[in-house]
Amino acid sequence: MISQDTAALIGAQINRELYSGYFYLGLSAQAEIANLKGAASWFMAKHSEEMAHAMKMYRYLLDQDAPLRLETIAAPPPESGSVLQMFEATLAHEREVTSAINDLVDHALSEKDHATGIFLHWFVTEQIEEEATVNDILGRLRLFGEKSEGLLMIDNELGQKAKQMAQSAAVDSAAGAG
Ligand SMILES: [Fe+2]
Ligand SMILES: [Fe+2]
Question: For 157, left (φ over 0), alpha (ψ -120 to 50), or beta?
Fold first, then answer.
């Protein structure tokens, strides 16, 4: 059993994860409209990942017999501009999520709630990986992305990465970890 406060904070994080999914869905549409099929697939794969994050937390609350309140999900920003700006927005967004997860861990530790602390470890590690991946993409976009050939190359790479993400999500869900 976890405290009401912790349940409410995890509930707020479920909302943030669902918003993240919505945020990436919006970017996927923008990328597709800009004919960046690889980037569109990458953002769509991120959308699925974020929905899975929300569901992990949803499952945790129900398994802990904790109250669950689903709140309104905010609309994502309407336009991000260039693909570089899309990934800059992505990094800024993921940094905010990282800080929210850190606050959640702080709260769990302050309550000596080790179950929640252990549960949140997965998210702490996930955020490191997410920020690193986006930093890497941003670095390549800054180097090559403004020119059409470079942009085409990066878009192809993003399409490949999206396929890998879909495969590893399928393996996770087959193992019951998704
Ligand atoms: Fe997430
Ligand atoms: Fe994320």
Answer: alpha
